[in-house]
Automatic annotation (TrEMBL):
General function of this protein: Catalyzes the conversion of long-chain fatty acids to their active form acyl-CoAs for both synthesis of cellular lipids, and degradation via beta-oxidation.
UniProt xrefs under InterPro entries: AMP-binding_CS, AMP-dep_synth/lig_dom, ANL_N_sf, LC-FACS_euk
Organism listed in the record: Magallana gigas
GO annotation, cellular component aspect: endoplasmic reticulum; membrane
Catalytic activity line of the entry: a long-chain fatty acid + ATP + CoA = a long-chain fatty acyl-CoA + AMP + diphosphate; (5Z,8Z,11Z,14Z)-eicosatetraenoate + ATP + CoA = (5Z,8Z,11Z,14Z)-eicosatetraenoyl-CoA + AMP + diphosphate; 5-hydroxy-(6E,8Z,11Z,14Z)-eicosatetraenoate + ATP + CoA = 5-hydroxy-(6E,8Z,11Z,14Z)-eicosatetraenoyl-CoA + AMP + diphosphate; 12-hydroxy-(5Z,8Z,10E,14Z)-eicosatetraenoate + ATP + CoA = 12-hydroxy-(5Z,8Z,10E,14Z)-eicosatetraenoyl-CoA + AMP + diphosphate
Protein name (record): Long-chain-fatty-acid--CoA ligase
Signal peptide per UniProt: none
Protein EC: 6.2.1.3
Source organism superkingdom: Eukaryota
Keywords, ordered alphabetically: ATP-binding, Fatty acid metabolism, Ligase, Lipid metabolism, Nucleotide-binding
GO MF terms held by the record: arachidonate-CoA ligase activity; ATP binding
PROSITE patterns per record: AMP_BINDING
Domain AMP-dependent synthetase/ligase residues, every copy: 102-505
Length: 683
């Protein structure tokens, strides 16, 4: 080529040669560029059906009837597993890994079924009734016994009630009492001890079935509390000696009570039936399966808490299709190591984790202008491809730039579904480029069995949460006090669907506040219809307060913004209507800060550097700068901050299972710090 160009004579030969060369180049490009492989199945400029009253419907339902199930033979969780067993009976179902450098060990669908059946038979042998007034508590990280317990419940028409780790012992006590729960399945000695400590206040608690081997001391403690402590494996043996035929539920039966911890006061038990679960999972599966196909070779990595519907929904979809589920080792820090061993093809996640991946990669190239430029080009080029509906991992950019990231995830991920909070457009585009797979975003809440809207496969755009799922009608309702009106296509998001929960357990009043007389679920989120039929989340009724000067503050938005600073791992922003500005608690990034501090001659110890005035000023300046760039108004910016050295986590009860800030708990914990910050400002 260069030889040709340097031959001045060639240019004078005339237009014919130039045309020929151009044509050859174009042919070369076209023959090497792959065909579009993820084409949307509807018009992206017109994604929802608009009814006369402004309600929107999915384009995937033809007769106006909301979707209840994807497969005629799958109406309950029991059916879902049965379908998987027909497809993959002798194929792997659940996998675990006991240490580093070890392969996953697998149990087949039939084996899982037999274990679940034995477990359920043991419950019956102990006198539990096969109907939906039998509640079984599950207090454990994700592992096979969790699945056996849940499958046993659906096989024998009982109800599973997850006790979240992060709800803490008091909430567990509340749930056990409210649900009159006699049997709790528990993973560790520590959790068993937590429960026993409250046993005198939980008269219904009869039996704890523990996965680990109970120590003698624990057994003694249990018998003092008049609680029967049984090992899970012994329970299975009991069931095997008393095997019963399955007694499956009806679709209208209660399947689970899922407690949510979001707001102040006691947790609320969201009651979900089999029909709720199946309609939502079917709708999600239908939408996702337009982009990818799944079979017995597909693998899901299970690490988001099973106590939350997002992960459970995904597992139901996996069982329905005979896919494999591999469990992480119970520690998020080991997740990428587990993923490299498992090589999952399905990956569900939350923005918090994607944001961290993004931050880490962007920060890793910051020292080098060349690397930064390369990354920028790579993202641009791959984004262009996504916009042409080409999704792949084998471009030159994948080889040069993104291969390492993909390898971290095992190298085979073909779909990522993110949910539980909106993902920033910049991060969304980056993840699409870097992962080289289909990335979809869902919006929903537990009360809707998780899903309300979902992005369409092949939609390359960001900044919205897709269009109504085929199981939902969605409308926006005026919120005059915040200035949102349906006539402007803005308002509180309300959904009508077979997946809407049937009520809060023993809480009529809250149920009435949430589901109106016509059956519409009021989400508390504020949405906006975009002209192409997609929904954008713009605000929240919850976590919103007015400052004293009358300006509305959405603290989550501010926190998300500050989280973009490379120095910030987490942020909690608070204020109230008595004040005219907000203040923040900032957790500096433990991976970035020590290095920075050392260069500045400051102690790299996190506790030490959090006390350092220079560090505080530096971080304060950085977040305010980022806030300004992102368009935060002056009154939205923190007026002062405190640095806190310990990450908010599930374990210290400062995060919800979906990794959102637990506001009431954080507020209580930092109340005196917040008061001090205000005192300083007002001085
Ligand atoms: C469940 O079975 C028990 C015992 O047969 C019975 O007392 C109870 O009323 C049943 N509950 C429901 C909801 O059917
Ligand atoms: C839908 O509309 C929004 C807002 O106008 C835009 O950002 C997005 O790119 C659009 N999506 C498509 C697929 O055109
Ligand atoms: C922020 O608070 C610290 C003490 O916590 C105080 O020394 C400082 O002056 C405050 N800054 C502002 C801008 O009020």
């Amino acid at each position: 080529m260069s030889a040709f160009l340097s031959d001045a004579g060639a240019l004078s030969i005339g237009a014919g040669v130039v045309t020929a060369v151009t044509a050859a180049a174009a042919t070369y490009y076209l023959s090497t560029r792959p065909e579009p492989n993820v084409l949307p199945t509807i018009d992206l400029n017109d994604q929802a059906v608009v009814l006369e009253d402004g309600t929107r419907l999915s384009r995937f339902i033809k007769d106006g009837k909301l979707m209840k199930n994807l497969y005629d033979d799958v109406k309950t969780l029991y059916d879902a597993f049965q379908r998987g067993m027909k497809i993959s009976g002798d194929e792997p179902c659940l996998g675990t890994r006991t240490g580093p450098n070890l392969e996953y060990q697998w149990m087949t669908y039939k084996e899982v079924f037999e274990n679940s059946r034995a477990f359920g038979s043991a419950l019956l042998a102990r006198g539990l009734k096969p109907n939906d007034s039998s509640f079984i508590g599950i207090y454990s990280v994700n592992r096979p016994e969790w699945v056996f317990t849940e499958q046993a419940c659906s096989m024998f028409s009982m109800v599973s009630v997850p006790l979240y780790d992060s709800l803490g012992p008091d909430a567990c006590k509340f749930i056990i009492k409210q649900g009159d729960i006699g049997y709790v399945v528990c993973d560790t000695a520590q959790k068993t001890r937590n429960l026993l400590a409250k046993a005198d206040q939980c008269p219904s608690l009869k039996c704890i079935i523990m996965m680990e081997t109970p120590s003698e001391e624990l057994t003694t403690q249990a018998s003092k509390c008049k609680v029967d402590l049984v090992q899970f494996s012994d329970f299975l043996e009991l069931g095997k000696k008393n095997l019963k035929e399955p007694m499956p539920p009806k679709e209208s039966d209660l399947a689970t009570v899922c407690y949510t911890s979001g707001t102040t006061g006691d947790p609320k038990g969201v009651m979900l039936t089999h029909a709720n679960l199946i309609s939502n999972m079917s709708a999600v599966a239908k939408t996702a399966l337009m982009a990818i196909s799944v079979n017995s070779n597909d693998v899901h990595i299970s690490y988001l808490p099973l106590a939350h519907m997002f992960e459970r929904g995904m597992q139901i979809i996996c069982f329905m299709h005979g896919c494999r589920i591999g469990f992480f080792r119970g520690d998020v820090k080991l997740l990428t190591d587990d993923m490299q061993a498992l090589k999952p093809t399905l990956f569900i996640t939350v923005p918090r984790l994607l944001n961290r991946i993004y931050d880490r990669i962007v920060n890793s190239v910051q020292g080098s202008a060349l690397k930064s430029k390369l990354l920028e080009w790579a993202v641009k080029a791959k984004t262009k491809e996504v916009e042409s509906f080409i999704v792949r991992k084998d471009s030159i950019w994948d080889k040069l730039v993104f291969g390492k990231v993909q390898k971290l995830l095992g190298g085979r991920v073909k779909i990522v579904i993110t949910g539980s909070a909106p993902l920033e457009a910049k991060v969304f585009n980056f993840i699409r480029a870097a992962f080289g797979c289909v990335v979809m975003e869902g919006y929903g809440q537990t009360e809707a069995t998780a899903g309300i809207t979902f992005s369409i496969a092949g939609d390359p755009s960001t900044g919205h949460v897709g269009c109504p799922l085929p199981c939902c009608k969605v409308k926006l309702v005026d919120v005059p006090e915040m200035g949102y009106y349906a006539k402007d296509n803005k308002g509180e998001i309300c959904s009508y669907s077979p997946s809407t929960f049937i009520g809060y357990f023993k809480n009529e009043e809250k149920t009435k506040e949430t589901i109106d007389d016509d059956g519409w679920l009021h989400t508390g989120d504020i949405g906006q219809w975009l002209p192409n039929g997609t929904l954008k989340i713009i605000d929240r009724k919850k976590n919103i307060f007015k400052l004293s000067q009358g300006e509305y503050i959405a603290t989550e938005k501010i926190e998300n913004c500050y989280g973009r600073s490379q120095f910030v791992a987490q942020a909690f922003v608070d204020g109230n209507s008595l004040k005219n500005n907000v203040v923040g608690i900032i957790v500096p990034d433990p991976e970035v800060m020590p290095g920075w501090a050392e260069k500045e001659g400051i102690s790299p110890d996190m506790t030490e550097l959090c006390k350092n005035k220079k560090v505080k000023e530096m971080i304060f300046k950085d977040i305010v700068r980022i806030g300004k760039e992102a368009g935060l108004k002056t009154f939205e910016q923190v007026a002062n901050i405190t640095l806190y050295p310990e990450l908010f986590s599930l374990e210290n009860n400062l995060l919800t299972p979906t990794f959102k800030n637990k506001r009431p708990v954080l507020r209580k914990k930092f109340q005196s710090v917040i008061d001090d910050l205000y005192a300083e400002i007002e001085k």
